[in-house]
Model the fold of this input.
Amino acid sequence: MKLRQKLAMVLASAMIVTAVPVTTMAKSTNEMNKVVSIVEGTILDAAKGVALDMKFDANQTTQDTTTTFFLKTEDFEFDKDAYTTADQTTGVYVDATTGLKVEILSKTEAKVTVPVKVAGNKVSIPVYGKVLKGNPAIVVDGEDSLATSGKYSLATGEVVTDKTLTATAGTVKNISIDGEGQIADIIIEEKVAGGLQNDAIITVSLPNSSDLNFKEVSTLEVEELRGLAGQDIKVVDAKLDDDAKTLELKVSGITSSVSRGGIKIKGIQVEAENAKYDVKTGEVKVTVKAEKMDETKLVVANVTDFGVKLNIKEEVEVVAGKDGKTVQVTLEENAIASLNQRQDIYFDIEGATITSKDIKIVEGKEGVVTAELDAKKENVIGLVLDTAKIDPAKANKIVFEFEVEGKVADAGDITLTASSRSFEEDIQIKLGTVKEAVKVEAAPMTVKVGLTDQKGGKVVITETEAEMLPRGKEIIVEVAKGSKAGITVTDAKVEAEDIQIKNVKVKDGKIFFTIDRTSDELGKITISDITVDTDRTVPEGKFDLTVGGNAISKHTDDVITVEDFFVVGTPNTEDNTTNGLKKGTGIFKVGERKYTVNGEVKEMDAAPYVAKSNRVMVPVKYVSDVFGVNGKDVLFSKENGGTITIFAGNRVLQVVNGSNIALVNGVKVPMDEKVTIIDGRTYVPVGEMARLLNVEVEWSNETKTATFTNR
Done:
């Protein structure tokens, strides 16, 4: 082989060698098996079970692989005596299963030898010793070994004190001014597991200046919390000092636990220092002491005068005529016996309606609050609290719920008033508000008695928010029930803005229309040119209009009332003469069908003629027109061969076919000519009629015209 070829082979081999990756030895995975809540001075021992777990890579170890590294501590001291071998060699720990060996070199350093080829390649290094103030941790120095170096904390947070217990108060109680009552529960909790020792002494003290003393008790209830749950912990001794201001409690039955726990001491009673005097109102404070706990001051009660509080969880807003909402009300005694068990409490609601007689009791005895119904047992008119169902031995709290809805006339605040003979004064709270779905504005309409086709007035329905008037629902506008006799709506103009309506009609005196499409902003519906007929039965005065239908309210009888919409007077209220007839002038001409009323030329179906008595005879219905009498106020009957009754202003005139005797307001008055029927038309002497109704008449013999004037 030539030299050149040998050199090429050497270079190629070198390239192959350098292309092979260099394998590095894997390190261990380290973690504490647990971290615990600890304070300064805490001893970690076998019972605590704290250890550093290490797992090695199986691919890099063999059965004979052994590695050695060192452990150092921060804010922690090894307990050399806790590490012993089977032969009791102090400071050396050997795990017989894994072969792990721990040798304590000093309070802050240990040497660890690990045969890493064990089951799962995992070992646990126990941590025994004493916690110092600061941040206790174990530091692994894995230099030149298979162990990964790192720092591993022993605690959940910084250790700052040796106080292992805390004291808090449960729900603060109300005590009456007579001093009798129970204070809040006293809660003692561990900061670290094992902080509360068996036979612990806990003292609860009232200030020397307090008007209260502790009552002597034989037993107190103890509730175990969290890590101490399930243990049979009791107050085995409760001692009062001579002044009854300090209560010393011995708590037994506590065993060690692996997690933090606590106890809740219930039922500590107080009484007035001097039963002759009331206790001062205000907060009641106590001082709680125990070993390994900071002295703690707690508010455990309030001394308050007798009385009750009424509150609502949250105010509601309901829309008038729509679905209701549920309110939650709380009635609470300020002190025991604030409520008299023989004097019930009555609740009245204003501004809304309670929808159901089923009252939900959230807290308190079932049936303690019930609905009060109307005489027909149909509607809820109030609520009643049965004080016989309260507990006389405690300050009662009753929580109940009910649903309220607003009628269309209920816009505004909803209030609940509680009253009782035992109350010095009623208690009132606001439950919420009723919001209008629509606003209705109107321009009144003046109408006259006995006239048809009277037109006027305006009603404007405006939403307070978009979509308040739902699609497919109907609106009905009519004269208010009980007021409509003699007033009949016959027509109207209905227009809509930013909302669509359909099926507009007037039937049976009512205006109907349906919402076809809801609004995007504020829908507005205008009803104008309302046309009505009135008869003579309508009394003078003012009458209401209503806006209803299921678009306005879910209840058919729930309507918006437009008060005094119709202003009714007799015909010609503003321009009548003393005879009650309309002012004006009318002209008849013998032999001509045309006649004139206030300058307007009209035509009859038969011409006037002159009778033998020289009296002008005119068909009665045209006489009425000239005299300002509504056609509806001229009544014909077949009685006595044909009787005509005319309601003319303040007079009622009655004439009979073939007779010259007229009845004027029931009084007989003779006429110069008889009433006559010709070709089915009833003719009357027009001049005589004018005289009877006190209408002026002027006759022109030259033109054969009669002019009638009502001044």
